[in-house]
Amino acid sequence: MLKNDKFYTFLLARHSRSGIYIKRVAVKKSYLHFTSLGLFFALGLTAAGFAVTTLVRDPVLAASLSNPASTAFTAQKVLETAAPAQAPDATDLAVNSGGPEESNVIDGEDAEIDNAVAALRKASDPAYLPTMWAHLGKINNEFGFRRNPFGGRAYEFHPGMDIDGERGEEVIAPANGTVIKAGFTGGYGNMVEIDHGHGLTSRYGHMSRIEAEVGQTIKRGDLIGLIGSTGRSTGPHLHYELRLNDRSINPRHFLPPEPTDLSAIAK
């Protein structure tokens, strides 16, 4: 919320499949002198499809904003602080990032995921667990909430990791499995998906060329494609994603630490 002598300016966020859009609404101070009136105002905006939000600065708040039960909390937060919205600027654009936006995000289940991963480790042959890097490069985006790589202050949930690379560099399979998808897939661009068994799959997006086909048996270290920038991407990189029972999970559940000096890696 921004203040001047006569008005409060509220920033309203509206969620859609393509992102979170910010709208400004100016309201006379006299209308919001009482907390109950402020809450009524926020409820009315929520009913109209908006969430009153400080999300532009606080990505952790994203899940709360999509939950109708959080309206009272959101109404109080908007009376405390908010960041000014601004149009996308060239300096806001993320280099070599992208990937699909995850719309069905369920927070607060870390223990459940940890338990599922632990059970998977016990049930699986280690050769079928993705415990090596499909490509080594700088991590441009981690798993989780991030600022929209195409500019502005909107946040979105990123279901994988963006690993930097040069167009044409190799992408290898980090574990054994069977290819279940190989082709152009929306925001992923040219994408390969590998089934590793027990509900675990991995996805590799934005590739310039696919070197695998559906039904192919894959061994750890096999070439599956080349780095590119196809689909929803701002530059050459690999979107690497893990899914357990068709829900995205943090790939770092299985990955070793990346080398600290990538320049020392032989090309």
Question: What does this 3D model show about the protein?
Answer:
Helix 1 (35-47) packs across helix 3 (71-80). The longest helix is centred in the middle third of the chain and has 14 residues, at 110-123. The chain has 2 domains: 2-80; 93-264, Glucose Permease (Domain IIA). The protein is α+β, with helices and mostly antiparallel strands and 267 residues long. The chain has 4 helices and 17 strands.
Summarize the helix and strand pattern as letters: EEEHEHHHEEEEEEEEEEEEE
Helix content: 10-25%
Can you tell me the overall shape? globular
Q: What is the CATH topology of the largest domain?
A: Glucose Permease (Domain IIA)
How large a portion of the residues is in β-strands, by DSSP E? Answer: 25-35%
Question: What top-tier CATH class of the largest domain fits best?
Answer: Mainly Beta
CATH architecture of the largest domain: Distorted Sandwich
Structural class: alpha+beta
Number of strands: 17
The count of helical stretches stands at 4
The major β-sheet equals: 8 strands, antiparallel
Low-confidence stretches: 13-22, 39-43, 45-93
* Tally of domains: 2
Name the CATH superfamily assignment of the largest domain: Glucose Permease (Domain IIA)
Let me know the average pLDDT.
73
Q: End-to-end span in angstroms? A: 51 Å
Alpha carbon gyration radius: 21 Å
Question: Can you summarize this structure?
Answer:
α1 (35-47) packs across α3. 15% of the residues lie in helices and 31% in strands. It contains four helices and 17 strands.
